[in-house]
Write a structure and sequence with these properties.
Elements: H1 4-12, H2 26-35, H3 54-60, E1 65-69, H4 76-79, E2 102-104, H5 108-113, E3 119-123, H6 135-151
Parallel strand pairs: 1-2, 1-3
Length: about 170
């Protein structure tokens, strides 16, 4: 963990340091994480897949959930401009539409002040995921997000941070 704040989290909490991607690039891994399989996807292109994912299962079970996407705007899951990355929004792939549970990250502070969903997913934009910007920029963003979340928490949170060593 290269960022100073991220390193402080690893010193304080548990780290799954022998956890590996099942393939590359990113999209098949996001699909596997949210549905248990890659659907044969081997690239970062968009594919309309059956609605057999975590979001659908949560909805069907009556569990409240939201996926907060940094940089997503009123153009939605597939058409919002960079630095938003639709490839980091796996929920848009299932059912051929953007679920209403997928919202811009700007909605998070409102939800934290009111009713927070039982399951929350947060995807940074291409800068804050440190693909296009420095580790220090992403690390600073993470510090801000974790601070906002923990300040507004009324329940237990299990943050999971996926990062690459490359």
């Amino acid at each position: 963990m290269r960022g100073q704040f991220t390193a402080s989290l690893t010193a304080k909490y548990r780290v799954a340091d022998n956890y590996r991607a099942i393939t590359h690039p990113s999209v098949p891994n996001y699909l596997a994480l949210t549905s248990g399989k890659t659907w044969g996807v081997r690239d970062d292109s968009y594919y309309s897949l059956p609605a057999e994912d975590l979001g659908t299962q949560l909805t069907n079970a009556g569990v409240s959930w939201r996926a907060y996407m940094e940089g997503m705007d009123s153009r939605g899951c597939l058409d919002s401009p960079p630095p938003y990355d639709p490839g980091h929004n796996p929920f848009a792939y299932y059912g051929g539409r953007c679920p209403p549970n997928v919202v811009p990250l700007t909605q998070l502070s409102t939800d934290l002040a009111g009713k927070t969903p039982q399951f929350t997913w947060i995807s940074p934009d291409m800068c804050h995921d440190t693909h296009d910007c420095s580790v220090s920029v992403g690390d600073s963003w993470l510090r801000t997000q974790v601070g906002e979340i923990t300040a507004g928490m009324r329940t237990t949170a299990v943050p999971t941070i996926a990062c690459s060593r490359s």
